[in-house]
Amino acid sequence: MEEPKDRCAHLEGKELIIGESLSVEEYAELLLGFLVQKQPIKAKYCYTRAIEKFERNQQLMQIWELGDPICKQNFDKALRICNATTLGEALQPYVEELKRRLTSVQLFTMTNSYSSIGLSKFAQLVGLDESSGTVQELLQKCNWTVAEDGFISPVRNAELMQAIESLNDAKFGTGFDIKFAERGVGGATESDSNFDNLKSLIDSTMFFDAMAVQ
């Protein structure tokens, strides 16, 4: 059975073959594959082609409801939609992976944007209700604690970077590949370099490796 990243490449190639055509399900999978692999421009044009062929198809329109805010880098909105989206057996794994990858970006971005953040705002940024058990799970993974006043200090630590790595499954294609090393002589660490490299990646791409679609 093909891994999702290979499946996406297969469908992309199939669409280009003269005499071949993609079904609604195949277009839906290709569209989700582009979104998961951080290719918003390909995703936008894939949706345009698909919806021209299968006009007002509800499944394609449902996927684009979460694709549009992703392309506009409105990740908290995209996460809220992801959390409320249920597709078929073949497509739902893409939604779950997309949810994890967007969550990893939001977690890292918090360390750049906030020295302190309220629990309710934290939950909003990861597309969840404050009472959700997943909120507590994410805080535990990052080793972030909620103070008595309800605020969190989102520090960039090894636990955060491990959480980010765990939220990206390589079988879906390009994701974060963060490796850690013990502190060496002289005070410099490979993990410090990884922090800087990941920051540069996110700052330069805002999760996507192409120009943002406005």
Automatic annotation (TrEMBL):
Domain (CSN8/PSMD8/EIF3K): residue spans on this chain: 25-155
One Pfam family recorded for the sequence: CSN8_PSD8_EIF3K
InterPro entries, per the entry: CSN8_PSD8_EIF3K (IPR033464)
UniProt-recorded name of the protein: CSN8/PSMD8/EIF3K domain-containing protein
Native source species: Heterodera schachtii
